[in-house]
Amino acid sequence: LSIKKAEITIPVAAPALVGRELEYLQRCVTSTWVSSLGEFIGAFERGFAQLCQVGCAVAVSAGTAALHVALLALGVEPGDEVIVPTLSYLATAGAVVMCGATPVFVDCDPRTWNIDPTLVSEAVTPRTKGMLPVHLYGEPADMDPLCAIADEHELFLLEDAAQAHGATYRGRPVGSLGDAAIFSFYGNKVITTGEGGMVVTDDPEIASTCAQLRNQGQDARYHVARHGFNYRMTNTAAAIGLAQLERIDWHLERRRENARAYRAALEGHRLIEFQQKDPSNASSDWLTSILISEEAPVSRDELAARLEAAGIQTRPVFPPIHTQPVYADRAAVPFPNAERISARGLSLPSGALLTQQDIATVVGEVLESL
Ligand SMILES: Cc1ncc(COP(=O)(O)O)c(C=O)c1O
């Protein structure tokens, strides 16, 4: 199959900076508050806490930084184990390793692609400190059984909601379902700050530890209470974030409309399977993702190449984290559901600026290839 690369005309998830972003950035510049002090940081934190219906939010420089400080604030130490889904973006497990602890991988539910609670129970050992479920592609993980396991074994429950801003689980916002949660504001996310992240929690002690850890571990100026980092968010990033947050309903509705359009056109096709949604939840529909049947005339990679040749950008579903070279010692353990989904899964263009015509173009190309 020889296919020439075309210019990308339909990106997988471009940011939509359609609110007061420029006005707020101008305020940063004219006031000179461009570093990590300024009016927008607190405003963004307060607004985001409100979205998640929690008491505290701590803005940091990336979702990975949010994971790192949240795990430390939850007491993760060298020698501890933290249960993570293997089907996720690599930062979920990487942050556990950054704490000197061990990520223990668990397979996913073949329908929802999220961590399978029954397998979580089996993975608990005397060294398990907590679990880190991911709301994959915006679909909330099945939190009720995970909460029950956390209670039974006295484990912490940290939500990796990096992809799930505004999603709800049984009517409750993600971010409010465990001891704490983290979000990412990377450029392709539901809302962005360029690079950025947030820890949210109802526990003021966890929040204040995270706030210290993001600022060199200081509890007062030049007074280091614990070893920390420079994970501060800038006022300029928060200015973009606040403008995005003001329009989050629009961002979510656009992504959900995309998902509905793809499902209306492709669900039920004998060679296509969608990530299954629980009707009592509301996904953020971060990236609409499909599985290409093994019986299809093209592989997932061939389909992606054909779409790219037509100017359509896609992403393969994340490789299971345990298959990465740095986890070579775990590669022998099979995680069949994650491996199957990862081998056949493709994330379709899903950004807020897509038009119905764009979606029709993507659908047309997919159908022509299958
Ligand atoms: C599930 C998940 N966790 C963590 C992260 C890390 O966020 P960041 O890239 O902002 O560091 C991401 C980023 O894409 C993610 O998808």
What can you see in these coordinates?
The chain has 370 residues and is α/β, with parallel strands linked by helices. A seven-stranded mixed β-sheet has the order 1-9-8-5-4-2-3, with helices on both faces. The radius of gyration is 21 Å and the shape is globular. Bound molecules: pyridoxal-5'-phosphate.
Average predicted confidence as pLDDT: 97
Strand order of the largest sheet: 1-9-8-5-4-2-3
Cofactors, ions and other ligands in the entry: pyridoxal-5'-phosphate
Structural class: alpha/beta
Brief account:
The chain is an alpha/beta fold and about 375 residues long. It has helices spanning about 20-30, 40-50, 65-75, 90-100, 115-125, 145-155, 205-215, 235-245, 250-265, 300-310, 335-345, 355-370; strands at about 55-60, 80-85, 100-105, 130, 155-160, 170, 170-175, 180-185, 195-200, 220, 225, 270-275, 280, 290, 315, 345. It binds pyridoxal-5'-phosphate.
Topology:
Elements lengths: L20 H11 L7 H14 L3 E5 L2 H11 L7 E5 L5 H8 L3 E5 L10 H7 L4 E4 L11 H11 L2 E5 L7 E2 L2 E2 L6 E5 L12 E5 L2 H11 L3 E3 L2 E2 L10 H12 L1 H19 L5 E3 L6 E2 L6 E4 L7 H10 L5 E2 L19 H9 E3 L8 H14 L1
Parallel strand pairs: 2-3, 2-4, 4-5, 5-8
Antiparallel strand pairs: 1-9, 6-7, 6-13, 8-9, 10-11, 12-14, 14-16, 15-16
Helix pairs in contact: 1-8, 2-8, 3-4, 3-7, 5-6, 9-12
Q: What brief labels describe this structure?
A:
seven-stranded mixed β-sheet, globular, binds pyridoxal-5'-phosphate, 370 residues, alpha/beta
